[in-house]
Amino acid sequence: MKRKTLLFILLIFLIFVLTGCWDKIEIEDRAFVMAIGIDLSNSNKKYVVTFQFPNVAQLAKGSGGGGSGGSEKPSFAVSEVADTIFSASRHISTRLDKALYLGHTQAIIFGKEVVENKTRFQEVLDSLDRSYELSRKVYLLVTPGKAQDILLKKYDLEPNTGAYIRDIFKHYNLTSIFPSVDYNKITKSLHETNGNAIIPRIVAGKNEVKIAGSAIIKDYKLAGWMEDDENMGYMFLTGLVKGGDVTVSVPADEEEVKVPFNVSNVIRRRGVKVENGKIIYRVKLDVEGDVTEYTFEKHGEMIKGDIVNLIERETSSKIKSMAYKAVNRFQKELKVDMLGIGDYIEKFYPSLWDEVGKDWDKIFPEIEIKVDVTSHVRRIGLFR
Amino acid sequence: MGIFDKFFKKKDRKKEEKGRPSSPSLKENLNYIKEKLKDCDDVIYRDLWVGENQEFNLAVVFIDGLIDKALVNDHVIHSLLLDSRQADPSIEKIKGNLYKVIKKGTISGGDIKEVNDLDKCILSILSGDTALLFDGSPDIVIISSKGWEKRSISPPEAETVIRGARDGFTETIRVNTAMVRRRIRDPNLKIKQIQIGERTHTDVAVLYMEDIVDKNVLNKVMERLKNIKIDGIFESGYIEQLIEEDWHSPFPQVLSTERPDKVAASLLEGRVAILTDNTPFALILPTTLATLFQSAEDYYERWMISSLLRVLRFLAALVALTAPAVYIAFTAYHPGLIPTKLTLYVAATRQGIPFPAFFEALIMEATFELLREAGVRLPAPIGQTIGIVGGLIIGQAAVQAGIVSPLMVIVVAVTAVASFAIPSYSAAIAFRMLRFVFMILAAIFGLYGIMLGLIMVLTHLVVLKSFGVPYLSPFVEIHLSDLADTLIRAPLMYFKERPEILNTPDKRKMVDLREEKIESLEEDRRGRDDKK
Q: What is the ipTM of this complex?
């Protein structure tokens, strides 16, 4: 009896000796990568991977208030050329005093060449999918130039580029001109539609970055860019708009006046009908918002119903035109269903999907997409 | 074989020691007592000659310091020597039964009993009684004359409340039982007194409500008390450790308190209380984990604030148990689980610190325990100085010297404060001790270790019992009505029944008068309807 207990205790202690501690790295020995840039080398054969992480020592001085600060770099960026992303992340350790840790990575930026090359892009996606450290809330972005160019720069506003990008995403609903989609949504879309996705676009400025518009990926390859208007139309159609402004012109006495319509709420209703063998997809948008500034001859003119009605009508047609721009792009030009129509039919009209699902890619360009927009001005602002 | 041998040996040892019967000769008796109490210079023998011609020999034996001098002088010696002469009984009448006459007619002390065993007589003398021995009679009169210097009633120091009674138990058991008796004027409040300790003969009182208590629990308590064979009991802690179910456990299975109101309330719930002489700490049992988180004040204040405080205390226990461990696990294994900004801050503050997080935490926790221990041992004014030196100077200096990170100091401070928020000191000790185990587990396994530790502690708690009642009671065998007094303290209106886990014969605690009124009204109406 006693022997057995002793043996048991010994076994339990063996657990402590044999396991444990193996993946223990103290927090100060880690480099918290905030942003990753992935480019292709000039010959398109090797990857250039750039890791950016904040200089934590400098951060401590700043928070402590005692140190001089300023002279030291607020963040580091290191690049490595390697055959695969994984080997890049390993080989970079020969040059760093800390272990790279991707758990807090906020953004991954792809250079244009990566998304232009189908096999390369698929390789990159696979390595991201397999990374156990990466959060699924990472933001993926595509830049028309090189990702390295964005990450090697230090921006005055926020030297920590990853946090900078994340903070921009936080207030996407002020404009709705870039899609607020993260890694989770993008990979889901890529895997479900066999290589189609919309990825936000980032452009390097002189002393800041700008996120606007998006890249369209078709069949794991860059198919084109969407500009602000188109992008907003796309977002209206997919129900991503949570805010943003639509500017309309209203004729006044002498010159026409520009009036901003600030979207505050969008209700989207959808329906599918089949008429004469043709599928008709209807989207009805109820847009609510406020008019925040305007200059008319007389104060108080806004209160009159006609002008409000006029603004509502103008807004509706503006939104409609944006939506149709996006529809044209996807349906006529790219012939890719990225508006979620196939998904919608599959879920809500399964019998119809049984018929059309097989060759939806061929049917999609032929269907009719109808967009109805009704706008409501809820508030007309203040007089002083 | 060995086990059986042990058992039988024990039984043999249990043989009752027979006392020495007293003899009719005063001299013989006195000699025996004097022989036994040899070299005890605080024993006082007073020979008396009583009667008109001083023909009767008596002796009074007591211990100086333990007796009430005024009582012995006025009501024993004075009565025997002077008052007895005023009566004029014929000597012939008395001669045969002097003992009876004196016992019934002369001694004006209140509490008197007789023994005819010299050893018992000595025991009584040693506990502060006065023995009156007669020549010609084997009967010895024991006059209760206990009266020694005692501490007056003062507020309970370990369990202060803002609202509630300010009296705490003292070191004298009689005063303590009186304090409980004053709160429950019910003939069903029983106070059973036994003596434990083969040399100290310490008085131990078992208190219970005859018609409320679960007899099984009571029998268990009495049996375990009787099985204690030890030379001395100096504090109720001895009894607690000797009667509890599992002495391997870090958790107290008996609640100790210095508050008479808490004891009284527990008795009404159907629990048993044990008062011990020479200590202000009473024991309450059976005890569950939930009762360790109850404070007397919970019931005196309004239920909302009491409930909030209850929740807070349970959270405090969790913090006291796991805070440093979580810090270690997060910083060393799972930096991905902390918010990004906090991660960078922690990494920044730990920059240049020479110790791994585990040793950092261990150093600070050990320092804290050291300071606490030093503060307890020192007299109050110096204790405060220690607090300032330790808390402010060492904490600040350690951070500035770069040995520990500022966040660690915060974690230690929060842990310390949290551990003091648990009302029961002995429960707090358990959590404080286990904290170090959790730190080690966290250092080795990270969060898995903490979970493993929690599972282990929980398993232990689930198995643990206090006098037959599961330690995690209202949670493990669900009684909905009992849950009203655990994580929250429901309004008093919901406490209509005594705790079900205690299995009390008398279940009803309170009758809601309003409900009763409605019922009686309805009955009245029904009666009237019937008449119609």
A: 0.81
Residues in chain A: 384
Q: How far is B419 from chain A (nearest CA, A)?
A: 27
Residue B263 phi, psi (nearest 5): -60, -45
C-alpha dist (Å) from residue B313 to B53, B317, B422, B428: 76, 6, 6, 11
A233-379 classified as CATH 3.30.300.210: yes
Do B207 and B312 belong to one domain?
no
Q: What is the per-residue pLDDT across B449-479, written as a single tens digit (0 to 9) for each?
A: 999 999 999 999 999 999 989 999 888 887 8
Parallel, antiparallel, or unpaired for β A30-32 and A99-101?
parallel
Closest chain A residue by Cα to residue B343 = A27
Residue B527 lies in a domain: no
Verify whether the Cβ–Cβ distance A56 to B347 is below 8 Å: yes
Instruction: Select the residue from A16, A24, A30 to test the B interface by mutation, using most B Cβ atoms within 10 A.
Output: A24
Task: Assess contact for B320 and B413: CB atoms under 8 A.
Answer: no
Residue whose tokens read 């009984």: B89
Q: Is residue B505 part of a domain?
A: no
- Give the residue numbers spanning the domain of B104: 26-143
**Per-residue tokens: B161:** 């409340």
Q: Which tens digits make up the pLDDT trace of A222-252?
A: 999 998 888 899 999 988 888 888 888 887 7
Kindly state whether residue B293 falls inside one of the protein's structural domains.
no
Structural domains counted in chain B: 3
Same domain, B55 and B195: no
Contact A23 B356 (CB under 8 A): no
Final residue in a domain of this structure, among B421, B440, B470: B470
